[in-house]
Design a protein that fits this description.
Blueprint (H helix, E strand, L loop, with lengths): L5 H26 L5 H21 L14 E3 L5 E6 L20 E5 L28 E3 L4 E7 L11 H18 L1 H5 L2 E7 L2 E6 L13 E2 L4 E4 L11 E6 L9 E2 L1 E3 L10 E4 L12
Parallel strand pairs: 1-12
Antiparallel strand pairs: 2-3, 2-13, 3-10, 4-9, 5-6, 5-8, 6-7, 7-10, 10-11
Helix pairs in contact: 1-2
Amino acid sequence: MSVPSARKLAMIAFRVLQLVFLTLVAVGVLFDPGVPWWCVFLPLVLAYALITVVNRWNGGAPDAPGRSREPVEVAPPVTGRWSALNSPADRTPSHGLHAYGQTFAIDLVAEPEPGARPGFRALWPVARRPRDFPAFGAPLLAVADGTVVRADDGQRDHLSRASLPALLYLMVVEGSVREMSGVRRIVGNHLILDLGDGTHALYAHVRRGSFTVREGDRVRVGEVVARCGNSGNSTEPHVHFQLMDGPDPDTARGVPFTWHGIGVPRNGEVFDVVAAAPASPGSPD
């Protein structure tokens, strides 16, 4: 049995301190015990101070000058017409945080034709079914030859959070609960491939029951490994893709990527990927 790393223990402590903070808030509201306000917020301050110290001790931000690795060139994880969101081509960390190895992560939404993807609404409809979005069920492809080290399934594909009330619910309530519940509830159903040379590919928010591979399987570039879903901390069905330097998003650092023939699409950039037939098992390299 492996010994948890210092960063892993720090992430566990971070979530426990968040839970203590919420418990103190609830106790204060329900029973008015007369606890000084600074005692209520102390666990929250300690939680973020702990993560800050651990990150600095771990070498600082992975995109700091002199720290970032050279981009790893891999194949795109999708085929068809897509649009980029939260792209590392525009800023890093692309999602606002270095946590969970997502410094250089990118989100993709399917754009098969104008108007095919439902847009954000202020009030109504509050939520939509995953099947209303063209990305839902789209095949996810292995970006390189590798080994499946994690294929985590079983979480439901929830309704979209593409309206103002639903988005507020996600940010204020659901997101906080998922944060305290651990990385698995944030990335949802997910797949991690070991590509060799200390590089791992993560596919998040995968559709429940869509995995075509299991842990330990060898995959070839272009092979269908799962399908796009809307599980975890997701506003709508989309592809969340990132490279990391380890198999555990709690402790891994982000690794920059570039896609064959595409590079790294910028926010809002629409791009096409032509499907290529994957190599059959046992075929020569």
